[in-house]
Every structure is written in C-alpha cells, then in structure tokens.
User: Fold these one by one.
Assistant:
Number 1:
Amino acid sequence: MSILYRSDAERGRTWARIFAAEAPDLPFHIWPDTGNLEAIEYLVAWQPSAEFLHSLPSLKLLFSIGAGVDQIGLEQVPDTVSVVRMVEPGIVSGIVEFATMAVLALHRNVLHYQRAQREAEWRHLDVVPAAERRVGIMGLGVLGQAVLQALSPFGFALRGWSRTPKQIPGVDCYSGSDAFEGFLGGCDILVCLLPLTDATRRILDQRLFRCLPTGARLVNLGRGGHLDQSALLEALDSGRLSAAVLDVCEPEPLPVGHPFWQHPSIMLTPHIAGVTQPVTAARIVLENIRRHRRGEPLHNVVDRAAGY
Ligand code: NDP
Ligand code: OXD
C-alpha cells in the first residue's frame, strides 16, 4: 500500500515530511518516483490522465489537489475509485482574502483610479455607502459562505444563489433556475464561486449580464470555463458592466495579445486566489486516508452525478 503525490514537487516535499512523521507505515512517493504502480492505493493530483489512472490497478482514492474537480474529467475515473476534493483552511483563507480585496476594490472604484493615475488626472467618483451596494455570490458552498461571512462586517446588502435552498443569517438566499433572474437583478457586484459543471459552463454570458443592474461589476474566482469572453468584452465596452476582476481564464495562461491583458476595465490575476497550502492539506488528506482504512465515511467525496 502506498500514496503517490503528482503535483508541484517542491510543495510535495512538505507533504512527504508530514507523512513520514505522522504515517511512517505508508510509503509516500513524489512523481516521477512512483514506486511499484501496483501498490498505489491513494493518488493526490490535479489533472491525471485517463491512461495513468488506468495504470493503477489498486487505486482506491483520488484526491484532487484543488477544491474544484472539473480538471480531472470525472468520467475517466474508474467506478471503483472515489474522488475526494480539497477542502482545507489554506484555500478558504486565500479565497476569503482575495474575494474581499476584489469586492472592496470594485466597490471603491480602484480600476477607475488606476486609469486616472496613469492619465495624471485628479478625477473622483461619488463614494457609495456599503449599505447601498448589493453584493451577490453565485455558489453557496464552503467558499461562497466563507466569503459572505467575511464581507458581513462591511455592511453590504448580501445575497447568494445556489442549486438547493439555503438559509444563511443576514443573506438573501436564492436557489435554482427559477430564482436566477431575481437574484441577478440585485447584484451590483457579482462574485462567481461555482464549480464548473455541465450546468454552469459559460453561465457568465450575455443573458446573465443583461439581468444585472447597469454598470454592475464582476469577480470570477470559479473557472475560466464559466465565462463567455466575447460577452464580457461586449458588456464592458457597452457600459452594461463597468469592471471585472478575473482570477481564472481559459486557457491559462491567456495567449499573447488576448484583449483581456490590456483591457482598462479588467484586473487579471494568474489563478492565485486560493492556493492549497501543503501543511494543512497533507493533514486533511491523511485524516481521510485514516478514515478509509478504518472503514469510516470519508469527508468531501465528490458527487459524480452532480459533477462537484
Ligand atoms: P462547494 O462544492 O462547496 O460549493 C459549490 C456551490 O455551488 C454550492 O453552493 C452549490 O449548490 C453551487 N452550485 C453548483 N452547481 C450549481 C448550479 N447548477 N446552480 C446553482 N448553484 C450551483 O465548492 P467550493 O465552494 O469549495 O468551491 C467552488 C469552486 O471554486 C471550485 O469548484 C473551484 O472551481 C473554485 N475555486 C477557485 C479557486 C481559485 O483559486 N480561483 C480556488 C478554489 C476553488 P448546492 O449548495 O445547492 O450544492
Ligand atoms: C482549486 C483551485 O480548485 O485552485 O482549488 O482552483
């Protein structure tokens, strides 16, 4: 029995140290040193190929190194293998910090002031009180709820949208496609924290932008595949949207010359909002392996039918 880690090798060395100290009976390998492929029961990876997965006859658990699992391609994972996503405090605090930064930057018109500074213009906009700014989160899971909690002390009018109904104190909750337009109509700042599935691909499209209040602002922290890029450019250029913060895009990185790189109303970051932290993540994975070995239910198993 062994575990193979197939991701960033430098962070993998921290994982290896933790496993050596806390689970010395479980051999820990860092790709490309796989050890005996037939002994691998646990795999930690971002985007393993179908061919590689099928070369591991004893594989029992596939741990996504990230919170999202769309990059794995669930349909290619053998039915005998459970897929577990990464829910660990390092990702959560990273997303909370980034989303708070992005919402505050959009609320206080930071992209406008960056442009004004570049043009050496002393050009101010009205300050809108937080209570008059409506912030909506698409996706009320681990990350969406943590972001709402962090935004609460600022006094924004908060709302959220999910697949199944939720009740969150201080947040107007909407669910399902029937409630979607009503939700969007009250989002001056919209944050996408959805998983990428068949139901959410290209959800950030022209129809959605038309349902937002004129001049709304967008933050996409989900996946690049959520966004219809042409629709965003059109919405920004027509004034339907006024600014966007994009941490994810498709492809990553964007090609040289892509219009997002230089767009004055887009802030682009290279998928760094929530980064898996090796010390906390290794311990979370180890706890799940222990549960598996004791025959107990696992935490954060992906629902393959739902795709997240
Ligand atoms: P969760 O699985 O905890 O939550 C997902 C939420 O999305 C749930 O509230 C779910 O609804 C909702 N949802 C899913 N499908 C739909 C749908 N069709 N319609 C409406 N709501 C839907 O995920 P996390 O919060 O942990 O992560 C969310 C995503 O964030 C990840 O999948 C990943 O893509 C992205 N991410 C990005 C990072 C970055 O650095 N930019 C870092 C980490 C994650 P319900 O509650 O009803 O099930
Ligand atoms: C994740 C990510 O899914 O980093 O964790 O995008």
Number 2:
Amino acid sequence: MSTVTVPSLISAYSAETKKLLSQLTLEEKAKLSSGKDFWRLQGIERFNLPSIMVTDGPHGLRKQPDDSDHIGLNDSVPATCFPTASGLAASWNRELLAEVGNALADECLAEKVSVLLGPGVNIKRNPLGGRNFEYFSEDPYLSGEMSIAWIDGLQSKGIGCSLKHYAVNNHESSRMITDVIIDERTLREIYLPAFEFSVKKTQPWTVMSAYNKVDGTYLAENRKFLTDILQQEWGYQGLVVTDWGGNHNRVLGIKNGQGLEMPSSGDINTNRIIRAVKCGDLSMEELDKSVGRVLDLIIRSRDAFQPTHTFSVDSHHALARKAAEEASVLLKNDGGLLPLSTTDNIAVIGEFAKNTRYQGSGSSQIIPTKLEQPYDAIAKLIDSDGLSNICYCKGYHLDETEDQQLISEALKIAQNSDKVIVILGLPTSYESEGFDRKHMHLPKVQLDLIAALAPVYEKLVIVLQNGSPVELPFANQVPAILEAYLGGQAGASALANIIFGQVNPSGKLAETFPVSIDDVPSQPWFPGESRQVQYRESIWVGYRYFDTAEVPVLFPFGHGLSYTTFEYSDLTIQDNHKSNDENTFDLTSVDDIVVSFNLKNTGNMTGAEVAQLYIGQQNSSVHRPKKELKNFAKVSLAPGESQRITMQLCKRDFAFWCSKNHKWRVETDQFNLFIGASISDIRLCDVISIQGDNPKGAQDVSLSAYFSPKAQNYTEQDFQNLLGKDIPPALPSKPFQLNSTMREVKDTWIGGKLFQIGFNKMTEKLGEMTEQDKLVINAIFDEMTLRQLVAMSDGKFKPKVMDSLIHIMNKDWIKLLCGAGVRSE
Ligand code: BGC
C-alpha cells in the first residue's frame, strides 16, 4: 500500500489556525491540550474560541447537564435511543446507517454538542466481549462499511464523530492496563481495516485512542499507531483524543500524535507540558502540531449551531423503529410459523415483555425520549382488530430468583392459547462496558422456563433481547426464533410488526452464533492475563475460522430468514472496461472488477435481501480463510420483481498483508468467488484467475500450524513463529505502581479505603441502587487505575499524595521517606 505523504502539518492548517498558533501563549497552548471539564474543551475568549462540547454516543445522545461520569451513572437529557451497533450492523443497510447518523446530528445540533463519541469499530474477537453490543461485527469490511455510512450521515450536518477505540480494544477485563500481543498480519487484516477504511473515506473529526497497550506501548502515546499508521499511511488530518482517563504520559502523547487529553486532569498535565517546553523536552513545533488540530476542531465546530435547531421526537422515534425492524434477524421459522395472525389467541410470556431490554449499559446508556414495551406493542396490534385475545405472565424473574409458580402459570396460559411468544434475553448485569461476560448462557430461570414449555407446546416463538450471541440449547426444540438485539426505544413495536407480518424481516447476522463458547478459537486466550493478552488464534476470528475449519455453528454469519424467497442467477464477472470471457484479470493494470447477477423475489411478499460477495484464494503462500466478505448489497423487491445487482472488487480485496515486506500483496493465483445469502448458503460461484504483482509463493513452513485452523491448539512456539519474535514477559502486578488497578490494590488497607471512598463518591448522588447496578459499578471501578483516580479528580487528588500512598501499599519506607516518584508502566 502506498504511503500518503502528509504535508508538514502546520503548513496544512487553515490561515486562522496558523495565525492563532503565532499568537497563543505557551500557557494557552498547554491548556488547550486538555479538556476544560468532563465534556468540554477549553475555549479562549480573547480569540473568540468557544468551549465546545463532546458527549457519548453512539446509539443516542448522552448529554449530561449536571453531574458527569463516563460509565452511564448520572442522568442525561432525553434523546432518541436507536438500536445499538450490533443491531444496526445486522441491517446491513448503508443508507439506514447514514439516516441514523443524520438524525443523531440533528439532536446534537439541538443540544449544541459538537462531537458525538462514536462509532465503535472494534472487532468482536470473542462473543464474551462485554462491549460487543456497542460494536458492529466480527468482520472488518462490514464494520468499516457501517461506520463509514454512520459517520457520513453525522458529519454531513457539521457534527464531528470520534472513531473509537483505536485500536485492538476487544475486551473489557483489564482494559486500562492490558498489553495486546498480536502479529502484524492479523492486526492489518482483522483489527485495523475498519479504522483504516473509515479514516480514508470520511476523515473523522476525531479518533479516540484506546485505553490498552499494543506491543508494550499505551495507544495514547503509541507513535506507530498514532503517527506512522494513522497520519503517515492513512493521511489522517483530524484530532486524536484520549479515551476518558486513558492518557498515560502527556508529553510523550503529544510528541507521538495525541492531540487532546479528556477529560480535564485539572492543571496536572497542563503544567507538565509547560515544564517540558521550558526545559526543552518538548519543542514548540511539536506542541504547535498537536494544538493546531485542537484549534482546527474548535474552528470547524464554531459556527455549526443556529438558535432555531430542533428535531422531531416523533419522526426520530419512527426512524428508531425502522432501524429496529431492519436490525431484527429471523433465525428460525420452521413450517412458516411466523408471521402470526392478529386473530390468534396469543400468550406473551417473559418479564422482558413488560420491562424490555433495549440498550446496553456503561458510557453509551442514554435516557430515551419515549419507551415502548413489547407486551403493549403486541397488544396494540392485536387490539386493532377489536378482539382482546392476549394474555400475559411473567415466566421468570429478571433478578433470577427461581420460582416454580411462574413456570406453572406459563404452562397454563400457553395451553389456553393458539400461539405463544416468549421474550428472553440478557439482563444488564450480563453484558456491559467495564467487564466481560463470563459465559454465553441465558439465565438459568429462562432456560428452565423453555425446558418446561418446549416439550409440551409446539407453537412457540422465542424473541431474544441481547447485545451479543447466546447459546441456545433449546434451538432444535422450538420452531421460531427472532433475534431482536438491543432494539432501542421503538424496538418493541418493531418486533410486534415483524411477528405479525406488518414488516418482512430483512436483518442478517453480522456475527456468528457458535454452538458453544468452547468452539470459539480465541477462547483459551480470552481475555488473557490481566497485564497481557495473546492473540494466538491469528486471523481465525468469527466465520473465518468456523467456515474454513468446517466447525458447525448454531447460526452462521450473514444468516437471516425472510417471509419471502429469493432466487440468484446469471453471475458475470468483468473488468471495468471490457467484458472478459476468460475470467482472467490482470490486477497490475486494472483495478476494478465488476461482479453482477440477477436477484428475484420468488415469494409473495415484498422483502429485502442482503446478497453477500465472498472471495477466497486457492493456493496462497500464507494461511487464508476459505471465504472473506468483500462486498454486499441490500435490495428490496416486490413479489416477482428482479433486479440486476452489481458489485465492485478492487485489488486490495484480493490482497493479504505480507509481514515480511510490510505491505499488501496480491499473488497470481486462482480465486473462488461466491455470492451467498449467508457465508454457508452460497447461491452462485465461479473461479477467476488473478494476475497479481507477486508470483504464487511456496507455503511458509514455519507457519504450518496455522494453515488448517485448529481452534485451541496453537502452542507458544507456533505463536512465536507467527510473531517472528519471542513473546515478551507480562509485567508483574507487584510492586504497585501508578497503573495498578483498584482490583489489584483493594486487598491492601489503603487500597480498600481508596476503593470505598471512590465508590461512594461516584454513587453518592444516585440514591437507591439495584443489586445489578452495584455489580456493574463495582466491576467498572475495579478496572480503574490509580493514575486515573488522580487524573480524574479534577486536581483534588495531588500526584505526590498518590505516590506516597503507593509507597505505603508497597511497604517501601525508604522511597516514602525520600519522597521518590513512582513507576508508571
Ligand atoms: C469509554 C468511551 C466513552 C468515554 C466517555 C470511556 O470509558 O470507553 O467509549 O466515549 O468513556 O464516556
């Protein structure tokens, strides 16, 4: 891949930014490098630079007018809650994502928020990732396409995004301190492309660096990631902002491409920057390069707001419903049980029916403008026929108290009904920012309910409300399963519309549903040791593994049923200029290959199909998946209607990352090209010959272990061969240091007190908390570091005091007496 030459950045800045850089004092520049408070940047009044606001995101606006926090505790102004990213991605609909981005921008304009902190494009390496609900997919191309559309929709209205969390932040446990050990090719092919495509196509106004380290260096100060790759290779012109409290060494950050520390750390880092410039550790040019990007952001945001900006709560609610309809995936529909008729006698079972789960928890949690409940939405549809043929029972307790009585009630109402809808899902305490899931099961009380209902009752429709895959041990015993994801505030009417056929489902899985978590290739190394995680499974993530290794799954990537049927025919493959009958393409001279085929709706209901294009190299010199997604199209067709679908492929689509030469490489070889309704439902295929810029090489024997993927059997030696070096030792957790977490120190007397005081402080204004809330907050607080405690205390917690406390925790009396500094690694 060619390297983009970024002009000396200062000369690329606008005339106003350049002028400002020549007028601002050192103190002002240092101040601009950190936030003003939790959500605002510094402004400089004498230059008419306003203090602009940034807030979460990404599936709705979380503007906190009063107390601030980054873990979803305090209230925010009501905003439209759209489905979370896992649902949005299941729509595979670029236009829809752009519409959602647009609507979010309108709400930002109305609330005078300049930057919305999203989208999250981290890859779902393992279904247990606590924040998977907030990410799009296990596939980098699909994640990138969804992100590009969302960002375009948002930024086209003059509101910036924050593409996050850059990079390889794929789990929550120890997210502040873990060091990701990953080989170069896996990084380039799996974990970076969604960022790369988004940066190259949309120039996000900001990129948020992740909390973790890669190869021993925190992302917030990682030159390779922030400068070499992001700026030099991809040509990024915007501002890199730290994840909240994710700054490590502020001066190093500025030198290496980090523009803005968020939130404010009081004067701590401002003073460090001033001192560094004064003593020559940081040059004024380095500081200018960095501050110029902050100024550019403020200037481009300055004039966005008009006093007249408002948005229609109702039309955004309707858009949220449309998004939820497209996000729902019909996983199973034996005998065409769905759609149901509104004249059927319906039993609705499950506490989620009256207490819906519609968003995840943590920093993305918002207050919706309205909230529908599934039971009400179903009853409304049924009642519109003038018949009152619906009954409800709870079936299980969300707090997981076992209750045989509820199961007996469920059996009773099921027996007196024609059809039974059971709403299941994951309670908040099962998936959240701040911790990973422990297993892939549904709560036992829900499984017990189905175990009682399924054998005696045939007409069961299971609806799932969850942000990431679950094991479904009952999948073979029930005829219909609808994955509704976390469908946002209008998710309830969306699912009712699908169940009763007002809407034809068109969602497809953007992730694999494995049979069991033990089948997942990363499982033995997930989430790793607290200070190191090895990505030993290499590129074998999601369907790339299951499809290539032929491991059965519960539901495959790209799968989703419709109430109609589609026929695929007449595949042709041409280059952009002329027809090519021999199916040979010389990619050294032609960059675009055009794939086209016919798609016909052969059923009797209007419906949309997501047609997917995969390719796979036949004899590669490195291990490659049998199929990789390279394009897709979502098309709505009336009964009997057909359309010719056209998709493009470019040279990069055929390439793998060559770790030896550090670049993309296309080998001359045969490639299989597949058009499918899912990864495992291939409808058309062909073989094409590609003339690449490299001859087909012999297989690299040192990597033989990786050629036929064996989920869990990669030895340390295999991984070292892949890395091309030894696995570095993980940092010890003792002696304690500034990057020790609360979890690591809380067994010491001082650590315990810090935990208690911090926890109380965080929660003091929240009033009565449920046990589940406490669990979530505890877990999030566990992962905070001592460095963050100081940085996020708004100057109240002095660094020197923390140094002394750490010496005491380490019983290092000499360092305590000398007032020595503390390690920060
Ligand atoms: C999260 C970010 C979020 C930020 C601000 C962090 O803890 O990782 O995704 O945008 O807080 O709330």
